[in-house]
Structure formats: C-alpha cells, structure tokens
Amino acid sequence: MTRALEVDSHDTATATTGAARTDEGSRLDEVFSYKELARLDEALTMSSRETGLRFTLYVGELRTPTRTAAEELHARSGVHPSDSVLIAVSPGQRVVEVVTGAGAGRRLPDRACALAVLSMTSSFANGDLVGGVVNGLRQLSDQAGHPASLRH
Amino acid sequence: MNTAEAILVFAGIPLAIVVVLALLTLKPGANRRPRYKPGQAWDHAPIWFEPHPAHAPAAGHGGETQAIGSSVYGERHGGDAAATHAVSGGQSHGGGASTAHAAQPAGPLGGARGTW
Q1: Is this complex scored with an ipTM above 0.95?
Q2: What is the SS3 assignment for B76?
Q3: Do A36 and A127 meet the contact criterion of CB atoms below 8 Å apart?
Q4: pLDDT one-digit tens code per residue, B49-103
Q5: Closest CA to A21 of A10, A32, A31
Q6: Beta-carbon separation of B51 and A56 below 8 A
Q7: Could A120 and B114 be called an inter-chain contact, meaning their C-beta atoms sit closer than 8 Å?
Q8: Of A133, A61, A124, nearest in space to B38 by CA
C-alpha cells in the first residue's frame, strides 16, 4: 500500500540539491519496489560502513564468460577497487558472481564468499532476489568484521 | 415466499457474496509488478547500486543540511548532488557515478560464483 507521492510540480531542484527522484522521469521502481530499493540501500550502506570495504551490487546481464565480465566491472567499481567487493547478479542467466579485490580478499576468503553465494542462490531459486542479496551482504560483512582503524 | 423471492435469496445472495470475494481477491493484484521467477528472461536495463559515502552528513546532525531531505543520509551538495549514490545507471545509461571511474587493477582477485 506504500507508493511514491504523485506530484506534478517539477521545481524540486535547488542550487545545492538535486531534483526529487520522482521528478526525473524514469521509473525508478521498475525493477524493484521502493521498499525493496530501501532494503538494498540500507544493506549496502551499513555493510560498507561496518567493514570499511566497499560493497557494490550489479543487477543485469553479464557478458559471457560471466567471470571475466564481473572482474572488468569490479575494476571500474570505485576509486580503490582493491578494497571493494562486487556482487554481480544476472537473473536472466541465473548466475551470481562475487568478486573481491586483493585487500578485501584478505578479510573475505573465497570460502566465505562461497558460503554467502550459496545462501544467495537458495533465495534466488525461490524468486527472492532482494532477500538473497540482503542475506548475502549480511554474511559477507559478518565474515569481514570491523577493520583495525574502526576498532575502539 | 414466492418464486421470485426464493431465487433472490438462494441464488442472488450467494452470487453477491461470490462476486464480492472475487473482487477482493483480484483487485489488489491488478497493479502488482510481475515477480521474478527463476528461468524467466530478464529484460531490464542493468543497474549498479553503490553504498552511500561514509562522510555524508546524517540528517539532523550538523548544520550542513539545508533542506529537509527525504533520506536519513542527508543531502548532498554541488556536483556531488547530481551523482546518485544509491542508484546509478548501468552501462546502458552511461551517466552513473560508477561508470565514471577508470578501470584500474586490484591485484589478485578472489570471490565465488554460483548458479541457481
């Protein structure tokens, strides 16, 4: 029963803030609902803040071989790809790839990634894309723990 | 009770109940988005989600927020405001924040792969 506020005014942009997301014309909730987008947003942000790694999520078609395509995406995923983790989900191809950079890989061994992937795929097989991603992110961030710089 | 009354009571009332229940069942699903089912094609444009930056001011803290934002993560300023952090366009859009980063090597890569 929650839906975006329907507004016709398009004067929401100011000198310092962007226009409202509902004014940009494109349907942002075409793939996921706003509720699901909020869940993804919070999961990505909180796991990135807790671990100090940078988690990004790609949802869409991947070129074959998907591993190479995901690694190319990971190389462009931020300023420090070494400390970033990319979760690439391609629902059409039924493939999920987790790519960790060299720095992130020290805290997230491949075995931990495989376990998170396993829990993600079991949710995906039930048609729950967002739930699977959120649970996978939770597992990955639990495994990575807090960085030494954030420890009190 | 004549024939007309009997029809009204024993056919009309059950029919009305069935119609009401059918409307209640079918109406809420009329505008629901199609749910993803494994095996069906995925013909949406790619999306790349990024976390909010760690240094973003939280809403209600500090004097930096000039407008009441709809997000708990506060407002962004200047050119940063144009670049979305939550949802950025994939390769097909080309305008997302992610695509602006140049490719750079990240050392030996790790990770895992799964299919379903």
Answers
A1: no
A2: coil
A3: no
A4: 988 876 655 444 444 444 443 444 444 444 444 444 444 444 433 333 444 566 7
A5: A10
A6: yes
A7: yes
A8: A124
